[in-house]
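ugh ok fine here u go
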Amino acid sequence: MPRFPLPKSLLLASLMLTPGFSLCATLAGAQEEIPVPFIEGADLPAAPLADDFSMAAPEADRFPGATLPACPPGSSLAYELPPASPFAGSLFERPKLTGNWLGLRDGLALNGVALDVSNTNFYQGVASGGVNETFEYSGRGDYYLNVDGQKAGLWAGSFLTLHGETRWGDTINRDTGAIMPANVGMLFPQPNGTATALTAVKFTQALSESFVVFGGKLNLFDELKQPYASGRGVDAFMNGGLTFPVVLARTVPYSTLGAGFAVLENLQPVFSFMVLDTQNTPTTTGFDNFLDNGVTLLASVNRPVELFGLPGHQGIGGSYSTGQYNDLNPTPWYDPNTGAFGVSTGTVDGSWSIFYTADQALWVDSNNPARSWGLFGNIGLADNGPNPVRWSTYVGFGGSSPLVSRPRDTFGLGYFYVGYSDPVQNLAPRLLNLGDDQGVEMFYNVAVTPWFRLTPDLQVLGPARGQTLPPNVRDIDTALVLGLRAKIDF
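structure:
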């Protein structure tokens, strides 16, 4: 094979512009080591280069007769390949469908900016039982923008998180006979119609490695997470009874203005405290009625616990709201002047809830600690009105697939029970006839590619509505709910 000698100046210039290449020198009598390209007026070795330049050849063979500048101990003249992009790969191997955007994603990451976009579609229906045996299509989009302030040229320890949401289509949440939604992901940012909203604009400042403060518009569904259970209805369980402590539904809004702090241990929060506006404002700024109805205080302690060398957590939390809520205990009245009867409802100040959560890994992949499966659980208690939920619980297990050939798949099996408060069940027993909610859900999340997940879902839901209906009214049977979820990460 013919060999073409390269001009010395062209060769050195090309090497100096190559990422990962370093050429070092120690000047006679100098106290510090300075790279040759930055020595003004320095003379390069005058001996001609060999006509065969091989990066694998010894240095003396590359530059015959030349004396190379000495390198610091432990360093060498070497070519290092730049690290591979985390977004690179073929269509069926890369983590995002649209890849690296011609290098733009890598460039944004170097400047502390990460943009994640996903689309989730649902086809779900009541196969038998429930109120109506029907199937519906719906979908949602999620848009996350995360900014590392230090890399973006701001100050150290600052972070900005934005979450935008879009929903469209119809659901079967009202067709199951249960109160807990069979598709919690389609409740937000609003439960019906087509809507797009910015539900989180959160600024975080780390004051040390163990203490951070944050504030802004907070998405509490993003904040309240539990291993193996949480997932906003798009990654894990779909039923609302298995995605968050239901006793918080009265006092903790979905999206609202607030602030708080967290104490960290190994970069994980072990104690957090928040002050929240009681108004739920996912589709507005929240400033128009800010603090018009008091505040909610939300605190939680979550400690890491190891059992037989496997990771887990034990936590307890609670909320208290100073806001005014509708009194669920109706007051009958009689007007002697007109002989009219009626029922009135007033308001009551304050509402509270407490809850306990736990999760425990039963298996962790020794080659990849991020892969594990285990148990999870939650139990909570709230006031017996104005909170419509008196108590709730869920238990289950899930996590990474135990199938060695399917390392990206996940699964889950869970049971939930929601007990409604006495005022709710006694409000209109002949018309509403509300009982308690309970159900079972199981899913298997198939990673068709790293960016495309297809999830069959099965739910068996007991009817909370119409458990003992008046005569001539059809009974509502246990609902069998089938669903298929498809999520694409762009």
